[in-house]
Model the fold of this input.
Amino acid sequence: MRILIYNWRDMAHPRAGGAEVYTHNVAKHWVEWGHEVTWFTSAVEGRPSVEEVDRIKIVRRGGRFGVYREARRFYEREGKGHFDIVVDVVNTRPFLCPKFVRDVPVVALIFQVCREVWFYEVPFPIAVIGRYFLEPRWLRVYRDVPVMTISESSRASLADYGLSNVSIVPVGTQGVELPSAGPKEAEPTVVFVGRLTANKRPSHALRATEIARVRLPDLRAWVIGSGPQEQRLQGKHAEATFFGRVSEKEKLELMSRAHVIVATSVREGWGMTISEAATVGTPAVAYDVPGLRDSVAGSGGYLVEPNPESLAADLVRRMPEFRSPGLVSLLADTVSWATVASAILSNLAAPSADSPNE
Done:
């Protein structure tokens, strides 16, 4: 098939995250299997407007907001008649492909809804408008479109917005496994992995380690990732070690050396870092919120009430368990990227016999 993917970022974007990792790994397998894949995304400083990455054709146009206008122009002027299906990847503000793609089927991939995230990332009253007007209005466009998502939590949230044709597709892992019984740090070590943004709440993770340090004086905190809160957090938490953005190999190595990973997001589609940590023998303690509760259930971790005090209490209570020799964290609900790509491809093939969007 000739597949067109719309996603607001690609792997070259400095703010690329789990959605881009997921989409890129899936697209890479499709190309290996003989399909043609074009990925339309926003412009990245220093990168060409068109380039080939892992045999995926990347087309970059428009900035953070202009990409949505350019997406429609691209399809109307260059896309129509050149693709067999369109994959509309929804990240907060969607491309609304069902409104302008009329000649071929559209399938949406929605990792999560925003809901509470609005109040962490944009100021009042825009947050209220986004949460109660914009997001419901945008998602109504997808009520008659086949939708894929990655967790039961996200499917339930989408159902609240009136989307009923929603199927769950699996989550993949990098496929790099380090020994689960490999050497851990001598001191009890907690790691936070993710973008340092308000909705990820890294400050909660660091505050929890501060509280827990009263009972565990040698407790150490590692932070992997970068973002707008990085400098402020470094200034406020000098006792923590900040590694910044690192390679996948280094990230997994650091994860394997820590005793526990903590996740404190407002909500997630899944919680990829929890699954990745489990592959290298590091269990999780995470907030009991949508998405994180799905990934924790699949990796043998623990859920706590979403506040630093509950997280700290659980770290103190479970640290002797986390430091036990030979601890192995189970990873039940993730599969290879090839399996993920095959599952999504099956969803793409299903609507191809139907009529294009009305």
